[in-house]
Structures are given as structure tokens and as C-alpha cells.
Amino acid sequence: MFYTCTPGCTDPKHQHSGPLSAAARAAPAKAATSARPVARTRSGKAKVVDLHCHYLNPEVNAKTAKLNAAQYDPTVIFADELTRETNVKQMKTRAPKLSGVTERLKDMDRMGVDIQAVCPAPYHFFYFTEPDYGAELAREVNEGIAKVVADTPDRFVGLGSVPLQDAQLAVRELDYAVKNLGLRGVEICTNVNGKNLTDPSLGLEKFFARCEELGVVIFMHPLGYTQADRLTHHYFNNVIGNPLDSTVAVSHLIFDGVMARHPKLKVVVAHGGGFIAHYWARMDHAWRARPDCRTVIKRKPSSYLEKFYFDTITFDPEMLKRLIDRYGADHVVLGTDYPYDMGEDDPLGLVAQVKRLPKADRDLIVGGNAARLLKIKF
Q1: Res. 298: pLDDT tops 80
Q2: What are the Amidohydrolase-related domain coordinates in residue numbering (predicted)?
Q3: Whole-number Å distance between alpha carbons of 225 and 232
């Protein structure tokens, strides 16, 4: 196989002159913590903000029952009978937490969370519907979240939904959600009906441009993997499929140039950034070694990956430490995935287990970064 390298290729196997060390090539982004103020409680503790949690609007759920949304849901399509039965049982026990506020507030107090950035349950993306109806449903989802926030403004802020199946309608709903309802950004899926977010047929460039212009957060959350024939057993379409779909989505945003064209985008990736956040060097190597990996972007892929934000849902303090060390404490935000069973029930305990984490960095991770991204004023 023949390939060409960029003039700055630093792969030692290619025997170019003056190669950089692996450490130099992979130098992690460091957080500049000293200049970032962190809101505190009266007792002096840093305010805790959960940027990954969900709310299911019961009225919208009842209204859309006739749609049989499960037929479009990869987590149902690519699942065996035991997984489907387990999901049904989970919904019965967790519905009050997912659709209500009373138990949610009790759980927040137990976990030490001061504020939740409430975003839609992934089942309420509704990209499979006709665009105008999808826009109507997104409006109802957003108004429901805005009401939750308005009823308890000291504990909640909101992230909304947009109909990504139509870029123009998505931009319109984004503007309404932010300007009229006061939501702090939007949650989007990692694909649109199986299409990459950068698929030209979707025309989502205008959506990303508007998010950048408004300075709002895009929280990217998967709903399984869309070609998951090999992931039907053992709940693999969540265990493996969710981080895999995030990995594909982030990779396209990088390699197709969205992050290069919109350098001020604030994109938060669920579940610790998927696989790509922990295996980024392979794409850097490919970019140096092959011309088909640098048809759009002019800098190494990891330089764009460093612009993303990642939640703490890694389930392991060593993995979380590596995420913090690689991207900086100022690019990691607290997440729980509340109230699902694949979530983190003790988010502060996980952060506390990270060895040699300075207090200033901890304060950023548990709330300071989210407060800045979501423009929360205490």
C-alpha cells in the first residue's frame, strides 16, 4: 500500500528528519483553572451542576403513543427479548423519576446535586416524523421543560430539542427555545434517522452556525447504534452501541470540518466522550499517514477533539483521571444520566476517587464548567 505524508508528519516509522517524541505529539490540553470563578454555597462548597440528566414529558408521551416510536428506535430494533423485558420493567420503576419532580429533587439532594440541566429523554427526538409534526412535538417538549424550570428555577435549567430532520425548522425552534423559553441549549442525537450529522442531504451547517452564533450548548446523546445487527444480545446496543455512535458522530464533526468552520461551538459528548476520547491517537496517525484522512481538515484531528467537552460518566476513577489529564479539567463536566440504570448514582464520589486532583480542578468539574457553558448565574 502506498500513501503520502503531510510535510509535518512526525511518525517515527516513516523516517523523516527530526521526529517529535510521542509525548510531544500527544501533549494533553491543560486546564487554565486559576482564572475561572466557581459559584459556591453559603458554606463555601462549590455548586454542583449535573449536565447529563433526562426528563420525559408525560403529555407528549401520551400524545405520541399512536406513533409506535419503537419501530424506529435502534435500542428496540437491535435488542433481544430479555433486554426488551428489562427495559419495560425499568420504565415502570423509574417513570416517577423520569416524568416527575418530587422524587427527582430527593435524589438530587441525596447525590449532592444543586442544579440539573434537564434535557429530553432520548426517546423524544422524533426525527422520524414528518418535519412540521416533528417541529410541533419539539415545541411541546421544550415548553414542558421550560415549565419544569419555571416551577423550580433554583434547581433546574433546561436544554431543549429541535427537529433535525429539517434544518430550517431546527434553527427556528432553536431560536424560540433559547430566546422565548430561556433554555440554555439543545440536546441532539448522534445521527438523524441513520444519517451522519454532516450528511449533505440534512443541510445542518446552518444549525451548527446558529448554535455558535447564539453561544449555546449542544449536548450530543446517542440512542444506540443504527447498524447494530451484531449488538442484539447482552444489552450491547447500549453498552457498546451508545459510545460507538458518539464516536462516529464526533469523528464526522471533526473530519468533515464542522469543528474547524465553527471553532466556538460548545459541544458536550455524553458517556465520557465515547470511545474516540480515549483512542484519539489512531486518527492522528491516519491523518499524518494518508491523504484520504486530510481532505478537509488542515490540522491533526485531536486538535479539534480538544474543543469538545465530556461528561464524567466513565464508571472508573482511573479512566476519568485520564480524560481530565488529556483534555483538561476545564473540558470535563459532571453527569449522571439520571434516572437510568446505566447512569452514575454517586457522581461526586467518583470524582472524589480521582487521585491527585487539585481542588480547583474538582470545583470546575463538579459545577464550574457547566455553570459557565450554561450561563448559570447564582
Answers
A1: yes
A2: 49-375
A3: 10
- The mean pLDDT of 348-374, rounded to a whole number, is 97
Q: What H or E segment, with its residue span, contains residue 166?
A: none
The CA angle 251-242-202, to the nearest 5 degrees, is 50
The pLDDT tens digits of the residues spanning 32-44 come to 444 456 767 666 6
- Helix (H) or strand (E) holding 74, with range, is helix 74-77
Beta strands per DSSP E along 337-376: none
Cβ neighbors of 318 (< 8 A, separation 6 or more) are: none
Q: Nearest-CA neighbor of 246 among 181, 329, 309? A: 309
Radius of gyration of the chain (CA): 21
3-state secondary structure 178-233: HHHCCCCEEEECCCECCECCCCCCCCCHHHHHHHHHHCCEEEECCCCCCCCHHHCC
Q: Do the beta carbons of residue 76 and residue 69 sit within 8 Å?
A: no
| pLDDT score at 38 | 73
* Least-confidence region, from 10-14, 166-170, 251-255, 322-326: 10-14
Q: Look-up: residue for cell 440534512?
A: 202
Which residues does 100 contact at the CB level (< 8 Å), separation at least 6?
Answer: none
Rounded to whole angstroms, the Cα distance separating 236 from 243 reads 11
Q: What is the 3-state secondary structure (H, E, C) of 219-241?
A: EECCCCCCCCHHHCCCCHHHHCH
Give the per-residue pLDDT at 90: 86
* Domains of the chain, each with CATH number or no CATH: 42-374 (3.20.20.140)
192: its cell numbers = 438523524
For residue 130, what pLDDT is reported? 98
Q: Is 193 exposed, middle or buried (0-12, 13-18, 19+ CB in 10 A)?
A: middle
**Between these two residues, 41 and 82, which has the higher pLDDT value?**
82
